[in-house]
Amino acid sequence: MQFWFRFFSHWPLWALHALGHLAGWLAWLMSPTYRQRFSENALAAGLNFLQVRGAVGHAGCMSSELPRLWLGKPVPVRWTPQSHEALAMAYQEGKGVLLLTPHLGCFEVTAQAISDAFSATQGPLTVLYRPSRKASLAAVMESSRARPGLNTVPTTMAGVRQMIKALRAGEAVGLLPDQVPPQGMGQWAPFFGKPAYTMTLAARLALQTGAKVVMVWGERRPWGLGFDMHASLLEESLNPDLDTAVLQINQAMERLVLACPHQYLWGYARYKHPRTEEH
Predict the structure, then answer these.
(1) Given a cut of 60, is residue 111 above it in pLDDT?
(2) Percent of the chain whose predicted confidence (pLDDT) is above 70
(3) pLDDT attached to residue 157
(4) 123, pLDDT greater than 90
(5) Are 261 and 55 in contact (CB under 8 A)?
(6) pLDDT at position 275, please?
(7) Is beta strand 97-100 parallel, antiparallel or unpaired with respect to 150-154?
(8) What is the 3-state secondary structure (H, E, C) of the chain?
(9) 155 pairs with which residues across the strands?
């Protein structure tokens, strides 16, 4: 596995994205189950296939670009002035920054871009990740994701404690709140009008620490030209009621997805029942 990651890490981004688009369409054509879930999820959001067909290829790009992002040369990243300013303002509050992104665009590059831009002055960024069940891939993830200014913590109680510690130190933490958590670590809440088992961790972190909530995502530019960084403060303060706060975060995720539906991972099993954690 490491050999192939290193091999593809030397490819130009345009070639990796071309390979990803091809792989995404092959997966879509070869799996009726995947096609059905993709279409049903888009329809739940009120979108037809023509509006989201670009997401078929972008789903493949999420995987094909990883070797370059983890092991290769830095990729071009553009910040909009409003995005950089919004994140800088959130840091200035001094209460920590909670960065949230759905399965939209390239969420790997967001962590790298934020740590590159802010870690020298604001401290490291801590991101939550779920270790791969494949030992070979887990080894690559652990050795390549962590880098100066960027700490990674697993989805365990120890990882959560590290995130709380970072927020209380005024640093930033990041996670994907639309990821289906294990049984007992979430609650059912509407997402595009359908009940989705939703993690409560994001809301709990914000309510417990008073951290500023910032929505972030990395948009792929065409022809392998790099990525655009988007960041914006949550439109309204989270309600102290946990159920309401979880719903607010889901609604914020919906707004991001609808802003760029052709780069959302519509094939993700967002409405599945949670798994039971093994002890």
Answers:
(1) yes
(2) 93
(3) 86
(4) yes
(5) yes
(6) 76
(7) unpaired
(8) CHHHHHHHHCCCHHHHHHHHHHHHHHHHHHCHHHHHHHHHHHHHCCCCHHHHCHHHHHHHHHHHCHHHHHHCCCCCEEECHHHHHHHHHHHHCCCCEEEECCCEECHHHHHHHHHHHHHHHHCCEEEEECCCCCHHHHHHHHHHHCECCEEEEECCHHHHHHHHHHHHCCCEEEECCCCCCCCCCEEEEEECCEEEEEECHHHHHHHHHCCEEEEEEEEECHHHCCEEEEEEECCCCCCCCHHHHHHHHHHHHHHHHHHCHHHECCCCCCCCCCCCCCC
(9) none
| Single-letter code of the amino acid located at 264 | Y
| Side chain identity at residue 149, one-letter code | G
pTM: 0.93
Question: Structure tokens of 66?
Answer: 């990883």
What is the spatial distance between Cα 185 and Cα 198, in angstroms, rounded to a whole number? 8
